[in-house]
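Q: Protein A?
A:
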Amino acid sequence: MTFARFPDLASRALAGSVVYANDELFAERENLIKPGPAVFSAEDFGHKGKVYDGWETRRRREPGNDHAIVRLGVPGVVRGVVIDTAWFKGNHPPYASVEATSVEGAPSAAELERASWETIVEKSAIKGDTGNAFEVTDRRRWTHVRLSIHPDGGVARFRVHGEPVPDPRFLDGTIDLAALEHGGAVVGCSNSFYSSPVHLLLPGRARVMADGWENARRRDDGNDHVTIRLAARGQVRRVEIDTSCFVGNAPGWASLRGTDADHPDEDAEWFDLVPRTRLQPDTRHFLRSVSAPPVTHVRLDVFPDGGLARLRVHGELDAGAHRAAVLRWLDLLPAGHAVQVLREAGASGRSAEEFLRRRPLADGGVLPPAVLSAFLGERR
């Protein structure tokens, strides 16, 4: 299951939401996207029967099937899904399928029901009490997915692993270049014994230590570190290193370095963004960058070890990187959505369809300057 290395785009931790389910009599649809594994208690019964930590529909007595619609917390290219039926044994669905759509804004459940849906996982047999994994080969960008179970039953968790592809129209100005929702990603880590460094890039504040990155206690002369690929090449202005919730196990010091390289190796040139700085437990530290050159990656070193809640790397995208993000986004949009946004940006219907025929735009296709400026947020 190699696709599991990609983040769960549907997770509640990324602001995903189950916006609709046609039935949830036995167990609520919101359980599908909880970050942790499903739990079970043999003694836990309610007035509707056994209480399950998942989504469970009633026994269907008529033709058809049940389904739930999930708004991805971060739109992106889906690499694989896991339909986890943990604890559902005699009441799991025998089959399931997954569809996806790409739409503008925040449509209502009724509007989503009328949207154009594409199948990304064909109707397939699934097992009970199992993490049923399916690789997805479609490389288009989606905003919503629909889990269909045939005909009914219970699913504990629904994971949608994929590559975040944010809307570049919202990447202008100063943003958090490291944020997962903007396309940042952890590409290296010395130690993640207690919790994943990916938590550093999640939106919002950490509630408990488990919401951050915590390594094991070091018993040597080294230090722990994590390397992050930024959303795109950009100039770092200021940094936040947050030790909230880490009281007796925060690092004593930290530093942040940057490099400008597509794939940094041991020969890459790294330079200070934030020199080694003393940290306090349970504190948000706000620091200004001491370097002006643009960077593609940052490396956070903690000395000698310890836990962090969040890392924010605020700055602006390089103009060329922002333009490349727009073209890639247009290449990955399904045709209907691409035509819609091109028309809204000022392209005529005929020219919008012509641009689609010339995809991939990232490989040399040319958009009129006025249309490209609309996507980049440039004021004329």
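Q: Protein B?
A:
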Amino acid sequence: MGSMQSLFGKKFFDYMIVVFTGGDELEDNDETLEDYLGRECPKPLKEILELCDNRCVPFDNKTKDAAMRTEQVGKKWAAKLRDQQVEVDSLKGYSKREISELKEQMQKSYEDQLKRATEMVESRLEQRLAEEQTARLKAEEAAQLAQGKSNDEICKLRKDLESAQRETAELREEYENSWCAIL
């Protein structure tokens, strides 16, 4: 809600109307929108309705009756707006130039907010990428260190094996030589 207000300005909720589709289901159950909202209205929706002074209308989106559609779009909404005393023609006192300037300001505000949001997302992505790259480099470093230790261990084992093989060969030779001397 705060983002809508910051995007469109402080008076955003002064001109907002909440449209509820499925009005035909209310009629089928002999229920009004007020009954339904009083019974099953979630808290976030209640907050939005309060911000726009409970301006809401049910809309029967399944009706095939053209007169009913016209009534919904025209009379119902206009009556609701009149009943709520909402100023429909809020830009009456503005010149075309002022309206154009307001539109430009809104567009610039939207673009600025979009740019900030994009920069924030990009910044977070870059930060995550840097963190992941750092973690990957640490993992590679640890793997290289482990590989180096493993290679050192293999070299040591080879040397030990060669030394053991030499000693075995020397002992055999010594044994063979001593056997020959006894005969």
